[in-house]
Amino acid sequence: MNKTKLLLLALAGLFAASCVADVAENQTISAEAQAAKKFVNTSAEAAQGELIIYVDEATAQQLEAAEVATRSGVMPLDNLAQEVGATNLKPVFNLAVNGDVKRARGMHRWYTISFPAETNLEAVAQKLSMIDVVERVQFATKIERPVAQAVEADPALCGATRSDDMPFDDPMLYKQWHYRNLGLQEIHPQAKAGADVNLFPAWEITKGRRDIIVAVVDEGVCYEHEDLVDNMWINEAEANGTEGVDDDGNGYVDDVHGYNFAHNGRITWTRSKDSGHGTHVAGTVAAVNNNGIGVSGVAGGSGNGDGVRIMSCQIISGETDAGAGGTASAVEYAADMGACILQNSWGFGAGQVANDSAFANGSTSVELEAFHYFMETQNNPNLEGGIIIFAAGNDGKAVAGYPGAYNEIIAVTAIGPDGLPTYYTNYDRGCNVAATGGEYAPVTWSEQSCVLSTVPTNIAKSGYAYMQGTSMACPHVSGITALALSYAMDNNIVLSLKELKDIVVSSVTNINPSLSGFKTNVSGGTLNLASYNNKMGTGLIDAYRVLMAVRGTKCIALPIGEEVIINVSSYIGDGTNDKIKMLESEISQEVIDALGIENIKWMGGKLMLTCTKPGSALVTLKYVAGGNNVGGGQITGGMEAQQEFAFVARYGVTYDEGTLEPNNPGGWL
Ligand SMILES: [Ca+2]
Ligand SMILES: [Ca+2]
Ligand SMILES: [Ca+2]
Question: What is the secondary structure of 94-120 as a DSSP string?
């Protein structure tokens, strides 16, 4: 930029001197401007010694044919490679798998050029941008390392007698308040019943399926963990193959449970600085349920080998990360090897990328190329594409970090057991939906209010630990998305990617809050709650509602212990329809028992009842559509009709007959 300005000044001085010089200067400016347009991003937070380039078609073919890419025969590239001492010029994407599709998309045109770290990065980038056949230049922005401090769960919990009404026999499930929050003070002094992802009623409907693969893009997943091993994805050809040999010919040697894109290929969790983060995230998605061991996972199955499977796409290993190219390869690998859900608890710092156009800058970045490839690859017969879910980030800022903030990707914010925004969560712009991420309790600093999941035993001896973060909220959404897809498969429902995204971000507990006042921040400050009003995404994800949305059944939220009048006509058409009259429908004893329903009364288009305990149930309500009430309960000219509804009775729901929405002055539930 400065250089361009200087050139313009020089031009002004020389203007009268020579028309020839004028033309030459203009050409220089034009070339510089052209070159500047090639930059996908800026050098902020860029890794040294590495740049990503996108070359033209002819050059891509020449590079592919060359025996040594840094001596490809493309002279300007070869010369530059020699000048900067390039050690490597290699394609980012793996053309050994699905090569034709990738070539048609232009994915073969991305290359990573590596050179000594002490070489001036900006200068190399400038020179690359001046080469005609180079169409884009991307700095390899460093990803923000997850800050994850594991606090070991009390080992006594491992042998604990399970609590009364648990759906599975995993001994620690009753401490996983993030699945079902009873508002216990031992968890958090301000714990709020119902501030959870409402998983228990969802588990009555579906618990996962073996044929759904969730790729965990993160630190390595400890695939030997006692509570994960049965739900790990296995590349059979490699598992039954020869060590050191790429048995399935996919370009990766010994990728039995995934691949380490950051360091030497083999998945690991024991290098210095490894934190257990990837294993914790994986456990929330799919720790094995009902195996009498440890914790439960959101889509971990029923204990009969029916949990979703975890693929480990490792992009952080000890102090090393995979860089932009390696991360793109990890996402590509997930698509190529069968994953349909991409779980990402990583990203760039909030505000580091300003907005969507800065992220894409009018031309695709290498990560975005990989994301699009993932989204457009169909690996599951019931989902037309692949869905990508990201943590919103832990900077406490009013913007999600990229890539999560990007409009095609779901970004997850985090609430605590008090049902309030956590002190660390990003919020507002780019944030789509909230989930339970946990938070140390103020004053006591109790870890029990964080998320409990699996970690490698080198991180915590017992293999189970608490962590907090949007990183921990995110896998709840990935797991629930897996449940949604399980249910769709069970019912032969095929969803488009857009339909599934719509379901995930709109099946929430209505938390449009009017929050006010302050919350004590665990790190000693205060959180001004008003800043978070309507800014945590659409609301707190509700697993049961997600499944009902897949089914196409409307949910009616009900409070507990309070007589309510349900205006059924408001659920038909645009909600202003008063041309129905309720008929006395049969509400089964099973439903009545499940919700403890009392005092059922039928009144015109309305139904009055009281629920006395939390639960959910399907109810078919009958009514007369149209026609006239001629008195004495007689209708003429109407048609008998019926519709299925889901009653969802929860603690914390209060009911506003006017809007028929859960209405809680405290917000959040
Ligand atoms: Ca292989
Ligand atoms: Ca092998
Ligand atoms: Ca378990």
Answer: -TTSSHHHHHHHTGGGEEEEE--TTS-
Give the span between the Cα atoms of 46 and 146, in whole angstroms.
17
Considering every ligand atom, which ligand is closest to the CA of 258?
1
> Are 348 and 403 a contacting pair, CB within 8 Å?
yes
CA of 396 to the centre of ligand 3 (A): 33
Amino acid residing at 645: F
Ligand closest to the CA atom of residue 244: 2
Distance between CA atoms of residues 260 and 283, nearest Å: 19
Query: Which long-range contacts link 370-373 to residues 24+ away (Cβ below 8 Å)?
Result: 370/93, 370/327, 370/328, 370/329, 370/331, 370/332, 370/335, 371/331, 371/403, 371/406, 371/408, 371/409, 373/102, 373/105, 373/107, 373/331, 373/332, 373/335
507 CB burial (10 A radius; 0-12, 13-18, 19+): buried
Digit-coded pLDDT (tens) for 307-364: 999 999 999 999 889 988 999 999 999 999 999 999 999 998 888 888 888 887 656 8
Residue 340: which of 293, 292, 313, 379 has the closest Cα?
Answer: 379
Q: Per the structure block, which two tokens stand in for 126?
A: 């400038």
Q: Which residues of the chain have pLDDT under 70?
A: 1-29, 145-147, 158-164, 361-363, 510-514, 574-579, 627-637, 652-669
**CA atoms of 260 and 255, how far apart (whole Å):** 9
Show the 3-state SS of 260-310.
ECCCCECCCCCCCCCCCHHHHHHHHHHCCCCCCCCCCCCCCCCCCCCCCEE
> Which pTM value belongs to this model?
0.91
What are the structure tokens assigned to 308, written together? 């979703």
Ligand 1: centre distance to CA 424 (Å): 39
* Ligand 2 center–CA 249 separation, angstroms: 9
CB 95: neighbour CB atoms within 10 A?
Answer: 14
